[in-house]
Request: fold
Amino acid sequence: MMEFLRNFLSGRRLIFIAILLAIPFVFFGSTSFGTTFTSYGSVNGESVTQTDVNLATSQVSQRLQSIYGEEFSLDDLDEEVSIELIKNEIINQKTMIAQAKDLGLSVSLQEAKKEIINLENFQGDSGFDQNIFESTIRANGWTPDEYFVLVQESIALDRLIGAMSSIAFPIQSDIEFLSAILETSRDINFLKIDKKAFVDSQDVSLQEAEEFYNNNPFLFLSKEKRDFSYIVLSYEAYKDQVVIPDNYIDEAYADYIGNIDQQTQNRISHHMIEKSNYDDVDAAKTKILQDYEQINSGKISFEEMVSSSSEDLASKDELGDLGLSSGNAFPAEFEDAIKKMNLNDISEIIELEDTFHILKLTEVLKPELKSKSQVEEELLNELIDAEALALMEDDFLELESLVLEGKNLYELNDIVGSNLEISGLQTIDDLQIKNFSGLSASELFSREIIPNKIEIFESENSYAFIMLTDIVQPVVQPYIDVTELALEETRIEKANIFLNEFDGRAEKIILGEEMLPEVDGISVENYKSVKRFSSLLPSEVVNRIFESKLQSIIAHESINGDRYWTQSSNEVVPTPEELTETVSKYEEFYNSSLGQQFDSFLDHTMKQGQKVRLQNFAVNN
Reply:
């Protein structure tokens, strides 16, 4: 289910924040998603943003590169496959984040900052370097505020994983026991019948095949065929129906310019006095007033005051830096003060419930004002996507209500002016619904599909109104059309008759009391020192051999139909000294098995009642 949990439980504890904090530039070379939409829905109430999509894309890409090599790209996959992988990554991450919050494992902004300032990637010659930090994260498309939120969530995830992992940990005695089992070996004598080769060797005449055909007509039935009529409302098709209003680009660009000031971000630092550190509020206020007068008079700089006497220990070493806000990240009292300040201004004293503050506006970041030609395509795509979705949803709701009123498919088609499609008589193997994905043919061939009743299906970006119009029931096919199939079925029957009578003879052949018949597909072999991990025999056969008593003859049938009669002997169990040399190589296997058990537990508990609302994914290759 969750890849990072599998890694954790395989003995390499994966601290999720390392993925975020050790970036840098992880997004380069991976599939990029369009930025038309700022929200992609939610998972368990947690909003999914473009940042989440970018991060999940990068993580999926890195995971696949670790398997298939660094040259591998998400672009090598079908679009639907890559989108599904990214969706699953987002769902897993957001499910865990929601669970962490429900358990009260949220992390404060100050805790996140403490983690960040210790990261090697952001260190300069004299420790943490603010410029390196900002240039790195901005190069990856994050603002500092967005990055802080990611780190807060990541630390919460790490705490959740750490807490849950306490119920799944390796025990040395268990590892040693497992090692002893896997290192034990046996000698194996066996008789094997290769089912395919043995069946192919059966001599069958046309007369025998026809007789079998007459006695077993149900084996030669044709496949059921069904005919469907349908209407598909496709999101892509509705894009062609969108009409661009006159002067839309001019008006949209004017709105863009009018809103750009709202995207300005202000960085502040603060000097703080904690009321609880003083005898009373007046004493605390006196201290902040003294500090304010010294700063204002120029006797001491704001930075020197923060470094020497600020009582916010989390930001003191960063000269009081609190990060960036676009108008809603800080307390309302701070935001009101910032509106009145210019760059490098010092605020009046601000009183909060438990603290006093003096602010300094240290940086003002205004977004780059793009020209109309630079944003024209993005503005057009935004309109087309939004309008196409709205048009499709309007038509769907209208058609859905008409279906409930009892209207037929042809009346629905007249309403939307779509092209009514007809599948023609098709088997379950051949049926396709044009321009509609996510619907398996088995759903349309189920007994619940009633003729002349409209069924409504929904996929990610389309709706389908489908009506079953005709059914051709299976019939026995003429012998001339199925002669080859009849010959094959007759060979299988003759082979099965032989096999059902062969058990007694097989034991005698292994014991040397009877000669091996000269028939294709039958052989006797002997392997020495076979272990449970051996690939010499099918795993299900090896497992049964080690579960049986020595010298006993056991019959097995493998998954592909091959038959085995085995006798094991000379079991060798490793000594404690021998185990000491081999136990280490089984630790990862043991932890992986433990992780899979734990993963199943998570899948069962955390995903119960999961609410996933994801939409608007679009890949730009």
